[in-house]
Amino acid sequence: MKPAEPRATSQQPNSRLTDFDLHLFNEGNHFHIHDKLGAHLEEVDGTRGVQFGVWAPNARYVSVVGDFNAWDRASHPLARRQDSGIWEGFVAGLEKGSIYKFHVASGVNDYQVEKADPIGFLHETPPRTASMVWDLDYEWSDGDWMRARAAKNALDAPMSIYEMHAGSWMRVPEEGFRSLTYRELADKLVAHVKAMGFTHVELMPVMEHPLFRSWGYQVTGYFACTHRYGTPQDLMFLIDTLHRNDIGVIVDWVPAHFPSDEHGLGYFDGTYLYEHADPKQGFHPDWKSLIFNYGRNEVRSFLLSSAFFWLERYHVDGLRVDGVASMLYLDYSRKEGEWIPNRYGGRENLDAIELLRRLNTMVYERFPDVQTIAEESTAWPMVSRPTYVGGLGFGLKWDMGWMHDSLEYFSLDGVHRKFHHDQITFRTVYAASENFVLPLSHDEVVHGKSSLLGKMPGDRWQKFANLRLLYAWMYAQPGKKLLFMGAELAPWKEWDEEASLDWDLLRHVDHEGVRRWLAELNRFYREEPALHQCDCVPEGFEWVDCRDADHSVVSFLRKPKGAGAQVLASFNFTPVMRVGYRIGVPFPGRWRERLNSDAHVYAGSGAGNFGGVVAEPVATHGRPYSAVVTLPPLGALFLVGEPPAASPPPVREPTRRVAG
């Protein structure tokens, strides 16, 4: 027998939704729908219970089911709220931790299903799929960080990001190699990140996801942290601990697609509610997942609220937006005839573009001290430029071109590199066109691509020297830095999400040498203004010599704002030591050898310059002075010089990240 049809109601006395809320939600401008829908512990007329709300506009019947009513779909029906598409109701007696789902019966077909709460704050630990009544109460103690973080996230500040997967960073062998909990991670992660000198941690998606092997990128709970490692309060404790130790937190956020699991968002009320009906628009061929209908107002409210939720409730300092390229192009990974052009006949996804611009405009309006970061792999213009000049409004963009060119070049044997010199010099053509992050991310050490160390050519010594050289090349370039966890260990194997990082590698001198080198690079990057103040403007970089392909040597200067010490970075990409190599410099005096990747302490051969060199009045490379240096084999050399006192040159400020 069918349950009785609930009738449409005006606002209930205990409803969280005002008519204005409904108006904002239905027009796509509600940024706090998590405060209105979902499950909220409340007291009504002296009775404690839970207020429920869910959007299911094409349903004829919605009820709350769970252990509390033996999953009886007729026991606790919700009432339709006028024509808003929202169903709501109060269930007395429910407490924190209660298990529930929404039973949804479609009004357009015979489809009936039990769905997890799209706005739920916590769900059962996978593979179980029900939602749990929970609160977000937490007493934060990161006030000092929150007040100061604008300076820590600024474009002229050092930003060195440690990307990590919480489930495989470190495991507990005594307990079946289980993952650490959020709280267990806190002290261990803080100690390691501080020792390594990273400024930020980027958490691969910690939103709830059914498939562990998706690494979190197949999200079903856009407002819930995964229960695998603990509760919302446990994740808040982890973020709070990082903040109290002066470490920023970025989270991966995935608006590009979502999985088709029955309990999730797909075909929610018997219609294609969150996704497109046509698979040419609504199905992602790469990830076999569903694509949001960005043109639907309520979907925009859902996604924008999710972004606000993590920034507000979890105090995160940035959102790294995954898969932006797949959002921008209607023909992404599709052949001719497999996609539908926009209304102008083009391949651009106009609705997704509008969503991204709206996201960045509103985030920077409400949270001017955070960053949004685009994983965007094409030549789409002005990704990190304000919307009022036609940009997408992101604060930063991953430089995928630098990553691909560098890894291709470094995979070559030294004898062949002179024929591919342009792969390491080309970046300066576009380096100032965006506010870039240089990524060596998880994507480069999986799926048969080998580890970073495994990509390097030569014998064992050369592989480690090349890896130290790669890291030096990254830190010398203009742009923020991102390294995936394990980069400091120099693992031989690819990353495996089912196993811990191989921390035992640090017993070996050459692996420990890479760790020390990376820690020194982070320290140097933070302490030397020339290496970070002008990361996003062209005035911070100047070639000294980019033409010596025959020797596979390049040199350039990094400069701070105004007057101050300059850094001469020189790279020898061959295993042949260059003795008596003359390099032009802009001013005389002593240039101190600040870092040398070939030093014994990093397991190098020890070739160097006895602490520094003196520039002579011998014109070289178009400069009035020069110094004779020894360039180590497969080595990077950082020399620091102080210019004579003079009025500072004008430096253009970085393009503001505020979307406006």
Describe the structure.
This protein has 660 residues and is of the alpha/beta class. Among the domains are: 19-132, Immunoglobulins (Immunoglobulin-like, Sandwich); 161-376 and 387-424 and 436-522, Glycosidases (TIM Barrel), CATH 3.20.20. Helix content is 22%, strand content 23%. It has 13 helices and 30 strands. It is elongated and about 90 Å long.
Topology:
Blueprint: H1 19-27, E1 38-44, E2 47-55, E3 59-66, E4 79-80, E5 86-92, E6 99-106, E7 112-115, E8 131-132, H2 143-152, E9 160-164, E10 171-172, E11 178-179, H3 182-196, E12 200-203, E13 207-208, E14 221-225, H4 232-244, E15 248-253, H5 279-282, E16 283-284, E17 289-290, H6 297-313, E18 318-321, H7 324-328, H8 350-366, E19 371-374, E20 396-398, H9 400-410, H10 422-425, E21 436-440, H11 452-455, H12 460-476, E22 480-484, H13 509-527, E23 541-545, E24 553-558, E25 566-572, E26 578-585, E27 589-596, E28 612-615, E29 625-631, E30 635-641
Parallel strand pairs: 9-12, 9-22, 12-15, 15-18, 18-19, 19-20, 20-21, 21-22
Antiparallel strand pairs: 1-2, 2-5, 3-6, 4-5, 6-7, 6-8, 10-11, 13-14, 16-17, 23-24, 24-25, 25-30, 26-29, 27-28, 27-30
